[in-house]
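Quick question, first post here. What does this chain look like in 3D?
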Amino acid sequence: MLPQTVRDRPARSAVLAALLVALASLPLGHALAFDASAWVVWGREVWNLDLQTGAGPSWKPFPVLFTAPFSVLGDGAGAAWLVVARAGALMAVVGAARLAARAAGPWAGVVAAGTLLLSPWWLLNGALGNADPLLGALVVWALLAFDDGRPRTAFWLAVAGALIRPEVWPFLALYALWLLRTGRLPWAHALGAGAGVLALWVIPDALSSGLASTSGATGTASAGSAGLTSFPFGTVLVDLGEQAPWFGLTAALAGLGALDTLRHRGLVRRGGRGRPVWWLALVLAYTLLVAVMAQVGFAGNPRYLVPALVLLAAVTGVVVALPDAFRATVADARAGAAGTVPTAQGWAARGPAAMAVFVLVVLAVVGAGEVRDQARQLDERAAVRRGLADAVQDAGGLDAVRRSGPVRSGDPGLRALVAETLHESVPAASSRPRPGETVARPLPGGRWTLR
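> Answer (accepted):
Ran it through. C-alpha cells below.
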C-alpha cells in the first residue's frame, strides 16, 4: 500500500487528502503569520477596490489571488487561506516523498517525508500560513511533472512559484528558454507568462503605494533575517544548515559521494528516473541566490530557504535508502558460492528498511525538542489571536470598537493582525494614534486591551 500511495496515486487524490487534513487541523491552532494576516487584509481591499500595500510586508501576488475571493467569507478568510497554505505544506511533504521514492524505492520516500516533517521551522512555517512551504510544493511537483513527460505542466507550476518569490524568476527564465529551444513551449505562452508575472508583481503595488511595498523588500529586515547580520551571505548558508536536520544533511552529502563511487564501479544502474545530484545542484543554486540577494540588501529570512529544504529532504531519502545499489550488486554478482546470492538478496530486502528506520529514529530523537517548541509557539500565537477576537467581542463587537475611528496597533509586530481583525488597512493600524482613537495593546497571556 505504501509504494502505491507514494508513487502511483493521482496527484488530485493527494491534493484532496491534504485539503481535508488542513481543514481538520484548524481547531488545533488557528494563527496566521504577520505576512499572512496582511495578505488577508489585501484580499479584502482588492475585493473592495481599495488596496493599500504600505506599512506591511513586501507585495506578493500569489496569496492575494486566493485571499481576494476568500474575502466573501468575512472573518473566515484567514481560516480559508490557512487551509490552502497548510495543504500546500503537506503537498510539499508528499512531493518530496514521491520524488525520492521514484528514485530509490518507498523507504527513500519515508525518509524524505520524515526529514522534512522533523526539520526546524517546518511545522511553524506551514501552520502559520507562510507561502514558502507552498513554493516548495510547486517546485517539487514541477520536477515530478517534468519526470512524467509533462514539461508544460512543470512550466506553469514554476510560473505559479514565480508569483511567490522573485528568486524563482531566473530558474523560470532558464527553463523557458530550454523549452523554447527544444520546441516544447510556444513563444506566446512564454511571453504571456513572463508579462503576467511582472504585471501581477508590479501593477497592483504601483497603483497602491507607488511600489513602496516592493522597494521595502530591501528595507529593514524582520528579526532573525540574514540582512541584519554583518555578513548576510554567510548567514544564509548557516541558516540552511540549521534548518536541515544535521543528520539528514550529512547523509545527503556523504550519500551522493557514495552513489557516484558505486556508479563508477558499476554497482548502481545508470539512468533511471531519479536525479538526486541535480536536485542538490538546485538546492545549492537557489541557496546561493538567496545569499547573494541578502548580501546586496534583501532580507534573507531563513524561511526563504524552505523550498531548498524540500529538495534536500528528497536527496536525503535517496542516499539513505539505496535499494538500486543492493539490487544491482545482486544482479551483477558473478562469483561466489551458491549461498551468496540469497544472502545478498536478503540484505537487499532488509538493508534499505533498516537504514531508513535508523535514520528516522535519529531524526526523531534530535528533532523532538524542536517540534515541541514549534508547537508551543503555534499555541501562543493562536492564543494571541483568540485574545484579540475576545477583546473585540467584550467591547461590544466590531462596530462598537470602531465607532471612535480607526483602531491603531500598540505593537508594531502585530499591526497586520490588528488590521485583519478590526477591518483596518495595515497603514491605518500602523499610524500613531490621535486623541480619542482606540489602541489595541497585547497583554501577557494572550489578553488584549482596547482603549
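The radius of gyration is 24 Å.
The longest strand covers residues 438-442.
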